[in-house]
Structures are given as C-alpha cells and as structure tokens.
Amino acid sequence: MFEWFAKWFVFCVLRLLAWSYRFVILDQDQRAVAQRLHPLQSYILTFWHEHLLTPLFFFEGQKHCVLTSDSRDGKIIGFQCRKFGYSVVHGSQIRDAKDKGGLRALVSLFANLKQGIPIAITVDGSIGPRRYVKAGVIELARKSQAPILPIASAASRVWTLKTWDQFKIPRPFAKIVIQLGTPIMVPSDLSKAELPHFQQEVADALNAQEEKALQFLRHASNKAHGACCDHS
Asked: Which domain holds residue 142?
C-alpha cells in the first residue's frame, strides 16, 4: 500500500513540476546525427544519475527504453518512466560478486536496440560511484554498434539532495537547458585494454555538455541583468 501511494504521489509532484518548467535544447541536431550512424536509427542516450529528471521530462512520450535498478527505489522510478511514456527494463549492477539482474537487463537492452528502439542509461549506475562511467554501457555500444549520445542539463534554480549522486531537482518554474553532445562510436573490435579510454571519453563528454549548459544559463542571466540595468 505504501509503495502504491509513493508511486502516485511522486508522479503527481513530477507532473506539476514538469508543467512549470521552461526548456531550451541545444545542438538538437546531434540526435539526428546519432540516428544516421545506425541502420535502425538506434542510439544509447547517456547521462549522469543526478540529471535523471530532465531527460525524463523533455523526451516524454518518445520511444525510448529506460534502464532502472531492481530495487524498491528503482521500481518507483520505473513507474514514473512508464507514466511518462517510456518502456522500462529493470536490472542492477553486480554487487558482492552477485548479479542483480544486470546481465539480463543488458540482453533486453540489446534486443531493444536491434528493434530500432533507442535506450536511455544513467552511466554511473544506481549506486555510483558518482560520475564514474560503468563498463556495461561501453560493452553494449560495442556489441550493438549503436552510438552513444551524451546529454547533460542545467537548471536556473535547483535543489541538490544530499545523496551519493547529489541528485538535482529543478525548482518550480526554472529554466532548464538540455545540451546534446557529439555521438560516440565504440569499435566492434574494442580490446579490454582500450575500455578505460572510452569510459573516460564518455565521462568527459558528459561533463563538457554540462559546462556548456551552465555557460548558456550564465550568459542568459548576464544578458537579462544587462537589459534590466540599461532600462533603468
């Protein structure tokens, strides 16, 4: 009963928040670039766990399959994803040498990509470490030959929670900037020795896109402030 109430309460709050936001998307053409790189137009939308909410809101109703953990919190998140029009795969990373459904989830995500359905992944997983790209997304990109599409966001006003990922919740009526990056292709013959290079490349791309989004907000704020001063 509590879980049912929690799912619907969170959904109602998120729906009200989403209604209040103003979105700006930058370099949206990178999505089309990613689609052209795969014969079925599949791609792997990647972002940090702390930025989970903004892609959820912005891509509402578009055909994406989302990976969430198999925990209670993950199931609540999965419920929100379904209510916002996404399909969901549950699975968690290996913990204490035990697979928590992660391998099964990767198989399901691979099947979605082969059907032309883009997938969305928080690349630092459900438990961290924060801003560390897990190897699974690189392996998925290698096997599927679907491009990795990095995406980051920044909000004009935000609450930052005291969680492992410093989870961000844009405040009501915030302006949210979503920045898409250049797609990353992982070679099919990638060796284990090369894996850390691509993990770092994805991390650098996500951090760079976030900085671009922040710069856009700072520029917009300075411009608005200057216009206000000129008017006065």
From this structure: 2-231
